[in-house]
Amino acid sequence: MNVVCLSSHAGLFSKADHNSWMDDAVKYPFRIRGDFNADGIEDVAVLSDISSLNECGGTFVMHLKDKNGHYRPYSRFFFNPKAIAVEKYGSTANFWVYQATPYGFGRIGYYEMNKDDPSEFHRIEIHPCEDGTIIGQAIYDAVFKNSDVQFVFEVSEIVDNLTRWRKIEEHSRYIIHENFIKNYLKSLYPDYQGKTLPGITVSRDAGPYLEDYTFLGKAMGCGEGVNIYLLESDRRQIAFIWVDEGGDHFQLPYCEEKPISYQRTSKDITKEIQPGDGIVIFHCPQQSWLDSVHVSPGESDAQE
Prior knowledge:
The protein has 304 residues and is mainly beta.
């Protein structure tokens, strides 16, 4: 399916966008810190809808911070986090973005960061990238390699049932989606153990992810920093496995069905999972893993 991503919308937000991003790691998995209005105070732009995130960008709500440390929702933007810049001009600032299509062209332009809300999107169409034009690529580079503001990219994590933010260097949509799935699985334990899941929307092009799966629980005692979350569908069990930074390497038992890397890495993960490998979906959960959550195969019907 072709994805058409052009959007010039900078618009309204709901009350739910206010400050719930601070402590809802599942709903808000990614944010960008930076002085977006060039007033000398760091602001934040939060990915407000994981299902909007695709190869062209995502929908973000920008929250501006005042001198007293209070945030206020400013506006909603669609942009690619790899292509943003702030231009300081006297006492004003322009927020530059690139809104792409899968076809090698897109719109580059800026919003004037007025006090109460941004201006309309002032834009032109350019053709950067390998199949584009020299001028198009030169315009793109001139803007996004010369931002007057540096940005910090962070993902949310659930640690001891609290939301924490962690800086990341690489922020592809696969890594952001993967972090979203990690937070979702963590949020299920232990309250949803043995229950059928409604699923969660990850993409607008597909139905709820993990819909009608039964959450069996989290396997225990598999190693320092080793996370194994077990699910079942049609009496077939699968495991979502990853290893935290600094955790033990985890040896995978033999399985005829090749493990799946959620990050779509080309690394061979058939025998071992290491920190940094991301989520691995494994189709041959061991009986010892299932026993460690006190749920037997075939006995995981939803209990309401």
